[in-house]
Design brief:
Blueprint: H1 16-22, H2 31-38, H3 51-56, H4 68-88, H5 96-103, H6 107-113, H7 117-135, H8 145-162, H9 164-171, H10 176-196, H11 204-228, H12 233-252
């Protein structure tokens, strides 16, 4: 998927009335509160990070290794973090100390690469997104934008189900700045794809609708992961219903 330069977040103005028509069937919860509650952060049962600091902190990028010993140690840290996430089934209780112990590396080495747990999780998330982009199926020529949208939804769902660590990081993230940026880039790439095949008009309203469609899909799937522990067929059907209904409403305005 083509790279899109990073920009600061700006609120969505296009298609917001259409969004309000679709969302009453979906329970809307602040993503910060939802992710924090699922990890036990709201009532401070966890000593990992407070919900307040999660919302305010800007995540600093990881420092990448350049020499072979550093690369090997970095990979051990990444593998240890992924193993702990899989074992826990969430991000709750995942700390830099726990990762250092599992990777069998000194804490000073871990802190050299990652200044915080958010930085490490953000590195894992970005790595997962790159893998997702590479593995999404090539889009065929479609007669209707709905066909393309359903193909996109099925591709993301299949990737999440076969890459559980990425699913947890994407739907229960520690950095919503990264998630927001990624949803924007996916939405912009989806817009270019739809427009290149002559399926949608080229305007800012449709571009923002594509960005929102990516956000809406993750919103419904987040609820599925929290309540059911996976992405169920029922919730995936709801993803398709919400996204298609929203996009139809935008295009009809």
């Amino acid at each position: 998927m083509p790279h899109v330069s990073r920009e600061s977040w700006r609120p969505v103005h296009g298609g917001d009335r259409a969004l309000l028509r679709v969302l009453p069937a979906v329970q809307i919860v602040s993503p910060y509160a939802q992710a924090a509650e699922s990890r036990g952060m709201i009532d401070m049962r966890s000593d990992w990070i407070s919900a307040n600091s999660l919302a305010k902190k800007v995540v600093k990028s990881a420092r990448l290794p350049t020499r072979k010993p550093g690369i090997e140690r970095y990979n051990r840290i990444i593998e240890a973090a992924e193993t702990l996430i899989l074992e826990a089934g969430s991000l709750q209780g995942i700390t830099l100390d726990a990762i250092a112990r599992r990777a069998d590396v000194p804490r000073v080495s871990l802190y050299y690469f990652f200044e915080s747990i958010e930085s490490l999780m953000d590195a894992l998330y970005q790595r997962g997104v790159q893998k997702m982009v590479a593995e999404l199926p090539q889009a065929p020529q479609a007669a209707d934008w709905r066909d393309m949208m359903l193909l996109y939804i099925d591709g993301v769902r299949d990737f999440y189900l076969s890459n559980r660590v990425v699913m947890i990081l994407a739907l229960l993230p520690v950095s919503f700045l990264s998630v927001n940026q990624t949803n924007r880039e996916f939405g912009q790439a989806l817009f270019r794809l739809l427009h290149s095949q002559g399926l949608v008009p080229k305007n800012q309203k449709v571009l923002r609708a594509c960005e929102m469609s990516s956000e809406l899909a993750d919103l419904v799937w987040r609820k599925s992961l929290i309540e059911k522990g996976t992405l169920t067929p029922t919730f995936t059907r709801e993803v398709k219903r919400v996204v298609i209904s929203y996009f139809e409403a935008v295009l009809s305005n």
